[in-house]
Amino acid sequence: MVLQTFDVLILGGGPAGTCAALRLLSLGYRVALVERESFPRPQIGESLSPGIRNIFEYLHASHLLTRHNYLQQLPAKVIWETSTAQTISPQQRGPGIMVDRGLLDKDLLELAVDRGLHLFQPASLHGHGIMKDGKWWAHIRMDKAFHVLMATFLLDARGRDGTDHAHRITTAPPTLALWAYTPAQQMPNETLIEARDDGWTWGSPMPDQRFRIISFMNPVKIRPGAIADVFGQTLDKTQLFRSVIQNWQPRDIAACVVSNYVHAVPWDERYIRLGEAAFSLDPLSSSGVEKAMRFSLQAVIAVNTILQSGDEQLARWLYERKLIDAVVTHTRWTADYYARAWTNDHPFWKERATPFISDKNIHTNFHQTLYSSFTQTPVQKATSRKHGSYEEEDICRLWDEPVQLSPALTYQDWPCIVDDIVQIKKGIFHPNLEEGIAYLADVEISPLLINIPGNATLGGIIDEWSKITTYKGAASMALFLWEKDILIQRQC
Ligand SMILES: Cc1cc2nc3c(=O)[nH]c(=O)nc-3n(C[C@H](O)[C@H](O)[C@H](O)COP(=O)(O)OP(=O)(O)OC[C@H]3O[C@@H](n4cnc5c(N)ncnc54)[C@H](O)[C@@H]3O)c2cc1C
């Protein structure tokens, strides 16, 4: 057996594992990946949210989204907040995409191999990896042969298989999903979503001329042979799917219980969890793939920070903070969305309409920090303006305004990401900011604020800042600070 050494060994070749591999390869690392299944393998989760596009662009993989007749920008018919159907145009929905996950995951993995990934597939870890002298050692079995791999990091991207139940912190009640396919020509060429009193049903055309229908409900015991009846009853309760069940005998109905959780120990001695091995989202969001990939990019920054600067504590702090932010935000968003359904006085909806993160058996620091963040009241933002947008007429109106810094502004050390490495910079803090900010428009902000003169006007500040960034960047920074009451009117 020959020993092969890598910087990073990844377990699992779904979107989370492959996204991490692609990014690590582009940063110049030696990466190996072990995938248990031969690809393409069947995989649910084909409806990709619009945000997926900029991740593929960032990975130089956008061309993979235009293959295999993937369906771009479908309209949707939705029965949710009222009992009547609303049509949502592709423009209102944003540029989502319906893919074949088996093929997309295969294409992504092949792209990573083209870019230098050492792939072991189909292969599995023999026993557990072992940490010895600061390195992970793993025995991989492939084609009846063993390979010994050594790596500085082990990234666990095994999806739901990567979390045992004992380590799951529950973030919502479990939901039963039943799904089947009908020929696409029987159905409209649009995504359908409908709230029922005992759950909800989603359907969409697929790239392969089939139409997938999934019904979600509270888990029930289904006696053998009765699954088609239970599935049919859910469709019969709807307006949008009822007609299809009258002429269709669904067969090959698949079922799974979807649990929502976050892992209680997502980071453990250079063993880092990604994607659904770290956390899962309610399928309501249709953004599991996007969030899994986005989070992998954060994990890569943590790995890169440690390999470049050795600051493990800082890297881990940012990784865990990003994970907590993602889980808390999603949990609140999902509960709010369930609460808005017109059927919300039924038990299925009531159970899901209040955000929930389990406080049972808190025995890890991560769980404790997650729970404290969840129970904190979110900051009320002073304005809805996003940094980066401004109106020229606002600038003209405020140009001669005498300004000064708010007395509530403070400066503290704040971790931020510069060139794919977590670094400590001086951040600005203010009651109207959700968290510290170190950079605005790619410019470090605290040195600029510290140097604002006592006789400043808003226009004078924009002129000054235009010397180090564009006029547009300077104007949007100044207006953002004005609208957050960080720059305030000065009494002359
Ligand atoms: C019912 C349902 C509907 C969903 N619908 C959507 C949707 O419409 N849109 C959306 O964006 N998301 C959806 N999701 C979520 C989405 O599927 C996941 O977020 C996404 O697949 C997570 O990617 P991942 O890479 O973490 O895991 P996976 O995609 O599960 O990949 C994990 C990989 O690890 C491999 N593996 C497992 N064990 C081992 C091992 N021991 N050794 C080596 N390899 C191993 C597996 O074979 C697999 O290839 C849905 C989920 C469910 C349950």
From TrEMBL:
Entries under Pfam families matching the protein: Trp_halogenase
Recorded superkingdom: Bacteria
GO molecular function, one term: monooxygenase activity
SUPFAM superfamilies assigned: FAD/NAD(P)-binding domain
Cited InterPro entries: FAD/NAD-bd_sf, Flavin-dep_Halogenase_NPB, Flavin_halogenase
Membrane spanning stretches: none
Protein name: Dehydrogenase (Flavoprotein)
Record lineage: Bacteria, Pseudomonadati, Bacteroidota, Chitinophagia, Chitinophagales
